[in-house]
Amino acid sequence: SSHYAVFGHPVAHSLSPQIHATFARQAGIDLRYEAIDATLDTFFDALEAFAAAGGQGANVTLPLKESAFALSATTTERARRAGAVNTLARMGDQWHGDNTDGPGLVRDLTERRGLDLRQRRTLMIGAGGAARGIAPSLLDAGIGELYIVNRTPERADALVDTLGQPGRVHARYLADLPALGDFGLLINATSAARGGQLPRLPMSLLGPRSAAVDLSYGEAAIPFLAWARAAGALEAVDGLGMLVEQAAESFALWHGVRPQTDAVYEDLHARHA
Ligand code: ATR
Q1: CATH dotted code for 102-238
Q2: Deepest of 28, 70, 121, 132, by most Cβ within 10 A of its Cβ?
């Protein structure tokens, strides 16, 4: 049977093993997919051991995506634009790195939620790994102007520079938010809720046609999405659909079959929303 894994820290509660097992059953593929806890210090050795034991592919989650990018011998253009890898495929004796997070988010928003992203004026809070992973895909999907704010403003500036579209992508300070008007798409790409507190956001960011998205799911997504509903957002979307869609994209890369995601999503949604 073929051998896959997700690496991260913490990783014990990752839904990826369950998602990939379901996809494999659907596709009739005999697959072993495990969760392997690895820190920045242990990741390289753990991945080598995994490859030596016949590991053919891996997903990579926090806080290892930048490391996975650095150790990939070859990468896709979308991984290079994100500077991060969430999907590794063994090619000979090397790792090939891709990033399916952004495509997964866009597919969830456009196909599952039926949102038209084109020309949506967009605000992204956060400029860390998660933000870097999705920004290029959002731009490719045709959003309008993209504003990026971050607690540490230098990181927002750096991300804006990396994205390389100065007329379209702008860094702003958190203190500027009340003056920015409203946005068709507001994305919380911070890890703030995992630490319990959210930056204070003015309700003027959202209007009656706005969609608000938190890249996390379950308990971590509750504070931001509750705030977004209170602020009048039309849609308040958590990251569970993105998780399923990025997994489907990785599965397709590894196995050449694109899984059907609706049943898996509905099942997880019933248990983790
Ligand atoms: P991830 O891969 O989840 O993006 P990360 O690269 O550590 O993880 O980035 C975390 C993001 O959440 C950053 O944008 C971070 O802001 P800083 O760059 O200022 O650290 C943001 N973040 C985390 N905790 C936060 C908090 N309590 N308030 C505001 N922003 C926070």
Answers
A1: 3.40.50.720
A2: 132
